[in-house]
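Quick one before lunch.
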Amino acid sequence: MEKKKQWSAATESVWAGEKDYLVHGATQVPVVHSVAYNYDDVDEWYEVAIGKRKGHIYGRNTNPTVESFEQKIKILEKAEAATSFSTGMAAISNSLLTVLKPGDRVVSIKDTYGGTNKIFSEFLPRLNIDVELVETGNHEEMEKEIAKGCKLVYLETPTNPTVKITDLERITKAAKAVNALVFVDNTFATPINQNPLALGVDLVIHSATKFLGGHADALGGVVCGGEALVHDIYHYREINGATMDPMAAYLILRGMKTLKLRVEKQQENALKVAQFLQRHEKVEQVFYPGLENHVNHDIAKKQMKGFGGMLSFALKGELDAVRQFLPKLQIAHRAANLGAVETTVGPARTTSHVENTPEERAALGIPEGLVRYSAGIEEIDDLLFDLKQALDQITI
Ligand SMILES: *Cc1c(COP(=O)(O)O)cnc(C)c1O
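Model of the pyridoxal-5'-phosphate complex:
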């Protein structure tokens, strides 16, 4: 029988990375809660400890359940290696601090995730690391800043919450010309829609809390890339300690089995919601890369297999309209999360960009009345009915 060389993402998300971790004939990966591992043979213990032999020593470094999760995402991102973290922000901060040192220069975009933006504006400057934030989607300006020389180009596409798109191939080419590393936060796209490593990117970062886990019940982060870079980041994390919990790893691993199903349904719903909102008289503006009038629709079409489950929209009447609208929704959590099976909504000012001041949000192009909408897997007719009745109740 001929062996298939590469399974599809749907098949890999169900099967990949689990086989080596099954025990007692079980069909599911166990949650190994043990902090430490016993070795009767002192020489074997030593060899595992110095990495000469496979095995586990202590939970801050490695854990079988966590490793199985890392294997699955590694295969889905078509990476050489992956290492995981307690949260998405830990993945981002640990990765940045692994490669950056005082005097380095970073080029990034203005509207990265709020927490990432805080690292750029508050913490890196303290270490005498220079950060240049370019208008998201202005590729010429970004190329100009990169050409001045930098250690790292940090991207996120689509962005949170205005779903702006950066051309990964184009910017990666500019970065490689000055020998800069390229990191990409792939949380919104997921490996189902986008594999940045295939375009020459050095490191892909995920908040596993969102689409990978998909059920809003576990925090996690992960990075995927080349063996040497990922090992350096692993080393920084094993010492500094932002380790993923085995129970979280299990929940995310289980969630990932349905990743393709969920993302397909979420983006099907997101497109229909975006089209509905675009036609509604109480809606000022809709942001969704799948809409033909989205500024970067062409780039999104080129580099993504699907447009994702995230959109945002501004209501006429700004924040006062949002105050009336959100409580009227019958199906949706009004919560600071996204990417889950349940539809989740919230204003950017209380979710992704809660860390920023109103002035900072304005500078980032985020209206105070912007609503972020993470489409769940519910029946689309129900979601549209619900949106319509809630919008109809806005009196301003
Ligand atoms: C949520 C999020 C993060 C941070 O992840 P946590 O798991 O909450 O720490 C980073 N980037 C993006 C795009 C996110 O949506």
